Amino acid sequence: MEGLQHFLSYSGFANVTVGHLIMIAAGLFFIYIAITKDYEPLLLVPIGFGIIIGNIPFVENVGLQIGVYEEGSVLNYLYYGVVKGIYPPLIFLGIGAMTDFSAMLSNPKLVILGAAAQVGIFITLLGALFLGFTPLEAAAIGIIGGADGPTAIFIASKLAPHLIGAIAIAAYSYMGLVPIIQPPIMKLLTTKKERLIQMKPARAVSKKEKILFPIAGFLVTGFISPGSLPLLGMLFFGNVLKESGVTKRLMETARNPLIDIVTILLGVTVGASTQATTFLTPQSILIFGLGAASFAIATACGILFAKVMNLFLAADNKINPLVGAAGVSAIPDSARVVHAIGMENDKNNYLLMHAMAPNVSGVIGSAVAAGILISFLL
Q: 35, 44, 61, 374 - which has most CB atoms within 10 Å?
């Protein structure tokens, strides 16, 4: 009986709390919306299951070495790639190998929309400072507005490692919920007439331009923001592998098996880091609220700046303001949402490729913003 009682004291049933049940329900919700709604399933399924893994109750600090925060556990070793910022650059390598910058190169003025959307980062930073977060914490929280999970994790690992779990979950949650969050803002800030604007077809981009851009782009952004070198270096390197035409095997490895493996490890360990005993705090709730505000502000800034640009453009060269919403870095989901809303209003209005321009520039912009914040605050 004594042995049975000892066994039961170590079981999950004896150690479960309301917090564990709340987080397990959250993990199940992530999996549900990923499967039934097809919202970022490659991210939300690993994160959702990771949340369940991290919230199976166990007795802590008795040498079991199973929790993500317990020194020597398998999960702790895998989580090292998050804490030390190893996974985000590898994700960027895969993104670079998948990304076609043609839309951006064919219509460079749309890059401004990607930059405008990053305003949400700095407005949220100010809001976080007002709510009592330290400058380092506020900068890490603000980057959620870029809707770029790897960048959010990278800057949090440098500036506020103790907030990585909350920041990563918030960033990836809002990336997955792009089809829910963005459409109401897009419809609220645009008129029916504006949503019907049809943009000129993009010009063809030469192979030489495609090869030179990642090299020139990295040199410029690297000199401007050295703090972003690990992210932008891998992003542009991946794009060189794609566009050079002579490294097909490396490109295929970066854009398929490598990014898939890292996404699995990143998602599961980030999810597991939401262990109720350390995750469910007032700070985490504030971070989720600030993250939502940051994402909404970034979306609105992109749309509003497109409307401002239209004041100075010829009638036959107007920008559909919906495209500005794609300035956040949720690639390619934001661009797809823009296209879907455009098609709702006009079945012949194809905005996808136009929206990809601010979308990919938003990826670069959020990484540059992260590097600038790191340079200022460290």
A: 44
**Residue whose token pair is 């709340």:** 22
How many structural domains compose the chain? 1
Among 351, 298, 291, 348, smallest CA distance to 325 is for: 298
3-state DSSP assignment of residue 117: coil
- The answer to whether residues 213 and 105 touch, using CB atoms and an 8 Å cutoff, is yes
- Asked if residues 189 and 304 have their Cβ atoms less than 8 Å apart, the reply is yes
One-letter amino acid identity for 23? M
DSSP for 213-260, please give it: HHHHHHHHHHHH-GGGHHHHHHHHHHHHHHHHSS-HHHHHHIIIIIHH
Structure tokens at 298: 């970034």
Is the N-terminal amide bond of 358 cis, ω within 30° of 0? no
Residue 53 lies in a domain: no
187-226 pLDDT per residue, tens: 999 999 999 999 888 788 899 999 999 999 999 999 998 9
CA-to-CA distance for 41 and 185, rounded, in angstroms?
23
Is a pLDDT exceeding 90 seen at residue 347? no
Written as six digits, the tokens of 330 are: 């949720």
26 occurs within a structural domain = no
As to burial, measured by CB atoms within 10 angstroms (0-12 exposed, 13-18 middle, 19+ buried), residue 288 is middle
* Nearby residues of 351 by Cβ (< 8 Å), 6 or more positions away: 199, 320, 322, 323, 338, 339, 342, 343
Tokens standing for 140? 């890490």
Quick one: average pLDDT of 322-336?
A: 86
Q: H-helix or E-strand containing 25?
A: helix 18-36
User: Which parts of 313-372 are beta strand (E)?
Assistant: none
Residue 240 lies in a domain: yes
For the chain, the 3-state helix, strand and coil shares in percent, each to the nearest 5, are: 80, 0, 20
pTM: 0.89
- Whether the per-residue pLDDT at 62 is higher than 80: the answer is no
Tokens 């992210």 -> residue: 231
d(C-alpha 83, C-alpha 101), whole Å? 30
Which tokens go with 45? 């399924």
Pair 314, 335: CB distance under 8 Å: no
**Coil vs helix vs strand at 327:** helix
With respect to residue 197, please indicate whether it lies within any of the assigned structural domains: yes
